[in-house]
UniProtKB/TrEMBL annotation:
Superkingdom, taxonomy of origin: Bacteria
Keywords: Cell membrane, Membrane, Transmembrane, Transmembrane helix
Membrane topology, record value: Multi-pass membrane protein
Annotated GO CC locations: plasma membrane
Protein name: Multidrug ABC transporter substrate-binding protein
Species this chain originates from: Rhodoferax saidenbachensis
Amino acid sequence: MKTLSFAWRYLWSRPLGAALNVLLLSLGLASITFLLLVGAQLSKAFDRDLAGIDVVVGAKGSPMQLILSGVLHIDVPPGNVPLKAVKELAKNPLVDSIIPISLGDNFAGYRIVGTSHAYIDHYEAKLAQGRVWESGVPMQMVLGATTARKLGAALGQSFVGSHGLGAGGHLHGDNPYTVVGILAPSGSVLDRLILTDTASVWKVHEDYTASPDDSDDDRQVMEEEREITMALVKYKTPMAALSFPRYVNTSTEMQAAAPALEISRLLHMLGLGTDVLRAFAGVLLLTAGLSVFIALWSAVRERRADLALLRMLGAPPRKVAALLLCEALWLGLVASVLGLLLGQACTAALAWLLQLDNSLLIGGVVWPVDLWVVPALALGVSLVSALLPAIGAYRVSVLELLQSR
């Protein structure tokens, strides 16, 4: 304990140098912490929200855009597809189930998603209040937990959606929604959505585009030409992945996008950016290591009188070497704490800035298993940097120390 106390005092006997070393080491560790936290949380969110969805069928365009808009709800969809064509796909012997997704409106920036009860069942979400909408009955909505909290909504409250997926569009004032249920937090994408029956989306947009002079025949044609945005498909057998997407892409006017494949591509593209940050963090750690080495090596030379006094008082060489190692350990410990806090703060700031509301990045403090590498790396860099100065202090004799004065 005395050695640790002496090492702490020695470390801060030169406050500017110690602070610089702590700052350099903390910045490198914070960068690594940030990368580990973002990577772990994105992987967890992708695994959670993509689970059980084998393929997404939608309009021709970018497959990745289809996945991001229809599953993660962080992009705009490429277009709509005929409901009739989706119903034909549901008859395919390779298809186990299909969940319809209809987009196009929002309320206060939260997406209104027309779908079926199967969408809630897929994520095993539970109701906190109220009930789900009645199938086929339009203009009833169920709010995700985050949406309800942000809007301060309550059962029975009415809302008017606006056109588009972002706030500021044309208001559909003739078709207000009524809140009939609020979901409990599930940690899934449902938390930040507004769910309703697909019939609600059709009603709002058909009333918006239809003319008062339209005949009953025109209305019937409109029903036959109804569309949805996309369909989330689950296979009956994994072997369907070999033929079903090819069938959709070549034999229909739609496209099939495999979530696992597209997310792998996305993570690969993100990896190019993280490689740069990782290299930057490595440079900071290397610089910090050299700075610690120089500081401790200089400390051995500056503290010859102190070291000589310790040796004359009976301290063995290993005690003197342990003093320098403990000083390095204190430095690594302080830097690891600051680096972890700074990395957590940066991750929380990114989540707040992007307004992801716990759907992809969690704003609070989290600790994935991989994060233990940060304090281990901090202590490792500090000890390696202190190794040569400690050996030098161990080998110097008391006589040489006294003669140097």
